[in-house]
Specification:
This protein is of the alpha+beta class and 457 residues long. 42% of the residues lie in helices and 19% in strands. The protein folds into 3 domains: 68 residues; 85 residues, no CATH class; 259 residues, Major capsid protein gp5 (Major capsid protein gp5 fold, 2-Layer Sandwich). It contains 15 helices and 16 strands. Helix 2 packs antiparallel against helix 8 and helix 8 packs parallel to helix 11.
Length: 457
Amino acid sequence: MVDVLELKQRRGALVKESRKILDAADARGESLTAEEKEKYDKMDAEVDALGARIAQEERQIQREAELARAATGGVIGANGTNGTAARSGGVHYLDNSRQAASYQHVEEVERRMAFAIQGWLRAGKPSNSKLQLEEEHLEAGRYFNIDLRAREICLPIAKDYRKIKAEWRAMSLTAASGGYTVPQGFVNALEVALLAHGGVRKVASVMRTATGNDLPWPTMNDTSNKGEIINEATTFGASVDPTFANVVFKAFKYSSKPILASTEILTDSAFDLAAEIGEALGTRIARIQNDHFTTGAGTTLPKGLTIAGVVGKAAASMTAFTADEVIDLEHSVDPAYRENASFMFHDTVLAFIRKLKEATTNAYIWQPGLQNGVPDRLLGYPYTINQSMSAAFTTGQKLILFGDMSKYKIRDVAEVRLVRLDELYAQTDQVGFVAFMRTDGNLLDAGTRPVKWLALA
């Protein structure tokens, strides 16, 4: 397993070295020499590559943890323990999510079946109908929906294990006998993919409703009023009525568009085809939703953050912005929202930001996270990469968002639905898979502007 902490430490060391190159040029009052620029660009590219590798590894660990929970019914390890190794009958149970996820592979699943049968045989003679089985063996049996205490079920399996193993290979990804295993794999992969590919969804507040009726969310703005001191037996003063409004969440229906798979590939694939197709369907929906959560105009689409937010800082230039202007954007948001605030921008904008310094302290405003689990920060705040935001350094482009992103509310309706289309493509002996999801998004803004943006002049 790749050590994420080691990758972060290597990345932090490269950042420090690249800063030394820039600082040396600043001290001379000159631009980088050709040799320095080549060295800096090489380090810069490696920092980006390590950052992508770290993010990829963290996403993979999260996915494998989800797969492990699905494979073990929510239990990793023996006897219901989480992350604990145990031995039973000489078989070693896996002790972390990455290893546990390998149960998704055919060979590991076969080993689990063998382990279940081994436990059944060890527990007593076949004539004994009340077999005493350990929890590990029962858990392995439940994986295949096999009652290991039933003699009439287990005895044929134990006698003809090779045949059962071959049948399991055939049924694992096809319809009819093994069809129920496919949708479960799809749903798990689909949910993970939405989190992995949806930049806004990572930081927004997500709610799920059973139905898709219009959902009004009330807002109130009473910030113009303050209390007062009054004398004894005097009348209190008048006040301005609070401003009441509401944000209405709808339920826009999204489709992934179909993915077709031949019967041959469904039957013969040795890898987890369900997870691969499920991730592709999730990625498709996540991409279009993230576009709309970012730039959607509202009314017939979700209202995106760049539309629902307001200007916090307009840069002086039409082609760039400065560190001081990023600081101005930060302080344009009310302190009440800054406690839970974060930045959001395109990865290309991040590359520009990483070279910016404060004018007074000459310190970089971007700081790398050097400890495991501690993300990189900008002016002390976390940030989210959102590839649906603009990366063009041209006039009027909204390049940075800042504020309390949890005030952006995503409304999901019921569950993601997966439809398997057997008959529609039967003429070509193919099976279609398509996912549907109903959702909406909008910024809860009662009038004090929780999210603002920086735009070029």
